């Protein structure tokens, strides 16, 4: 090889490396921008109401004092630092389940660390997931309300328009969900960047109003305020927590953006902008106590007030969008983990599998949000209901993280406890503080989450009882295969696929086919669909085939809890393992169970009836598993539970 050739090849390698580095760099910054839009929408809109409500609680009907302002600001600053920065950004983002985060991902990770799904771990996961739904109802209501209320600062004449306008925005927001969020999401990042820059700008505009405000960086101001005013301090802590709501979204959206982009966005833009804005609000209130009426909008120069209301409304819609899509994602995970019945899932993007729409969840959230707006009417009243759901989720995350750090990361139990216990104490204190608002509105998310927990527990318990009863009635698959191999009925060409939840028992549809049609297909597949404790399953691990006899095969399809099962597509992968799958010569046999309450059931009668209603509401298996309807044969059976 001559020198010129070597130089050319070296240059080509350098150019390729440079292009690759440029692509990685542009992709990283695109993800960072996206994380600003989706991950930080909720916590980014907290300055609209968090400082106002916390300080109102701290001073009550008395005068605004420097001690109260510095105490509240100190608590907000250190809550953001310890709860969000240290616990979530620096610690929990490391606890990823194959790149995915969130309470259910952490539950799966903890279960894997223990080697099995234990009841305490699963229960914690269920509570955390249920509380996320409570948050998904409150966030759109309080966020949009607080933004639209800025119109009353523009002119008091708009006061009567706040509620109708809020309801109109929310209805439109939920109505467009079925169209997908891909197009709208492209604007999320830039709009939220403008929002955070505006937050920092407003803060800088007023931070010099009273330089004493910088003393709030000393945590002793926050601690002494709580110690000197125990009851008021605890109530104030519950409202200070409004400043960190949305912090758990950092972890939940890990799979969408990755650890580094989320951290870069937090330290490079979001955290500084929030702190500067809160300090600006505090300095302005110290200089002008009357501004406590609405300190956020009072910071805005009059010519920019209306544009700021519009920007704030856009930011709150984005914050709402983030929790709505989060509710869809957690619902899909819950379905895959067997926690709730199958629900119809629509994909709104041909490129991104994570962009889904679940009609029933969307309707339930809209009804819940509109009820809250109608019940509480103002963001100040709604603030009492906010926080309890998020604090519970944060406590759950901390407890599950202890299991992961101890068992999966290999730490000594006391070392893991020394790391996690302080966070449990902090989250627990915030939980107790929010619990003090129980009768003022905190009962709403607790009631909502309680209903979700009841439904999940009923579904799990009923499913176990049904499986046990069905297993008792069914014939072992191996016994049936041996009998049919020795004495086969009439054989017809083609492939028959029998779906079953128990791969060791003969499917009911197979027995009914033999009983009524008295024929057997040339190829018979007993198909079981399993949910893995990982977000996604590779193609190599998707299909497992076991040959039972010349006539029978057992196939297991595995899907991750972040995936929507597609049976025909998965079976096509089996061709690589030697199975000649042709959808046009394949019939899928499904059992459609008609459930009736039994005289003697393992559950109370009310729970028995509830389980039957849940089972009836489940989405059709044909649609859920994306099986062509023209290839499906359904066999009806009646079972008592």
TrEMBL record:
Keywords from the named record: Cell inner membrane, Cell membrane, Ion transport, Membrane, Potassium, Potassium transport, Symport, Transmembrane, Transmembrane helix, Transport
Topology term for the membrane: Multi-pass membrane protein
Keyword RNA-binding attached: no
Compartments where located: Cell membrane; Membrane
Residue stretches in coiled coil: none
Positions of the K+ potassium transporter C-terminal domain: 493-640
InterPro entries, A to Z: K+_transporter, K_trans_C, K_trans_N, Kup
Every K+ potassium transporter integral membrane domain range: 32-482
Catalytic activity: K(+)(in) + H(+)(in) = K(+)(out) + H(+)(out)
Transmembrane segments: 28-49, 69-93, 114-133, 153-175, 187-208, 220-244, 265-284, 304-330, 356-376, 388-409, 416-436, 442-459
Major place of residence: membrane
Family note: Belongs to the HAK/KUP transporter (TC 2.A.72) family.
Cited function: Transport of potassium into the cell. Likely operates as a K(+):H(+) symporter.
Protein known as: Probable potassium transport system protein Kup
Gene: kup
């Amino acid at each position: 090889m001559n020198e010129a050739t070597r130089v050319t090849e070296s240059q080509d390698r350098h150019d390729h490396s440079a292009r690759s580095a440029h692509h990685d760099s542009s992709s990283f910054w695109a993800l960072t921008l996206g994380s600003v839009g989706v991950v930080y929408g909720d916590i980014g809109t907290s300055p609209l109401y968090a400082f106002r409500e916390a300080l109102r609680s701290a001073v009550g009907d008395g005068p605004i004092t420097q001690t109260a302002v510095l105490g509240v600001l100190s608590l907000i600053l250190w809550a953001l630092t310890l709860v969000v920065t240290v616990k979530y950004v620096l610690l929990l983002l490391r606890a990823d389940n194959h790149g995915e985060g969130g309470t259910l991902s952490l539950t799966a990770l903890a279960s894997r660390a223990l080697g099995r799904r234990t009841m305490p771990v699963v229960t914690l996961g269920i509570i955390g997931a249920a509380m996320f739904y409570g948050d998904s109802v409150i966030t759109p209501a309080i966020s949009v309300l607080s933004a639209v209320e800025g119109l009353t600062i523009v002119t008091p004449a708009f006061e009567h328009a706040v509620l109708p306008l809020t309801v109109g925005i929310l209805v439109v927001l939920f109505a467009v969900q079925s169209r997908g969020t891909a197009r709208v999401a492209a604007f999320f990042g830039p709009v939220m960047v403008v929002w955070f820059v505006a937050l920092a700008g407003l803060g800088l505009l007023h931070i010099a109003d009273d330089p004493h405000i910088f003393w709030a960086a000393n945590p002793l101001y926050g601690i002494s305020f709580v110690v000197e005013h125990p009851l008021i301090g605890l109530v104030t802590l519950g409202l200070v927590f409004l400043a960190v709501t949305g912090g758990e979204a950092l972890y939940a959206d890990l799979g969408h953006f990755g650890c580094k982009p989320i951290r870069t966005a937090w330290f490079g833009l979001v955290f500084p902008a929030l702190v500067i804005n809160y300090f600006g609000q505090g300095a302005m209130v110290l200089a002008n106590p009357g501004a406590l009426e609405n300190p956020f909008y009072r910071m805005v120069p009059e010519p920019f007030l209306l544009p700021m209301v519009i920007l704030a409304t856009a930011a709150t819609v984005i914050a709402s969008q983030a929790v709505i899509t989060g509710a869809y994602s957690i619902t899909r995970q819950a379905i895959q983990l067997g926690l709730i019945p199958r629900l119809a899932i629509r994909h709104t993007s041909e490129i991104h599998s994570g962009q889904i729409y679940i009609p029933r969840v969307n309707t339930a959230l809209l009804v819940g949000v509109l009820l809250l707006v109608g019940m509480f009417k103002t963001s100040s009243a709604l603030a009492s209901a906010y926080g309890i759901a998020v604090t519970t989720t944060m406590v759950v995350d901390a407890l599950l993280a202890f299991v992961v750090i101890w068992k999966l990361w290999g730490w000594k139990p006391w070392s893991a406890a020394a790391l996690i216990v302080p966070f449990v104490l902090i989250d627990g204190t915030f939980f107790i503080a929010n619990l003090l608002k129980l009768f003022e509105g905190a009962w709403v998310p607790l009631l909502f989450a309680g209903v979700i927990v009841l439904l999940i527990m009923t579904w799990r318990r009923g499913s176990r009882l049904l499986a046990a009863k069905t297993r008792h009635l069914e014939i072992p698959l191996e016994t049936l295969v041996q009998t049919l191999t020795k004495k086969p009925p009439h054989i017809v060409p083609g492939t028959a696929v029998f779906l079953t939840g128990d791969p060791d028992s003969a499917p009911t549809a197979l027995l009914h086919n033999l009983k009524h049609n008295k024929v057997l297909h040339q190829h018979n597949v007993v198909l079981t669909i399993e949910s893995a404790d990982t977000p996604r399953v590779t193609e190599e691990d998707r299909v497992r085939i076991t040959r039972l006899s010349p006539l029978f095969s057992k196939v297991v399809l595995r899907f991750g809890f972040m995936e929507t099962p597609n049976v025909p597509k998965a079976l096509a992968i089996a061709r690589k393992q030697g199975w000649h799958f042709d959808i046009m010569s394949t019939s899928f046999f499904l059992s459609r169970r008609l459930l009736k309450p039994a005289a003697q059931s393992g559950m109370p009668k009310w729970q028995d009836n509830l389980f039957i209603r849940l089972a009836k509401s489940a989405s059709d298996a044909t649609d859920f598993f994306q099986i062509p309807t023209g290839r499906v044969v359904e066999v009806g059976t009646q079972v008592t539970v």
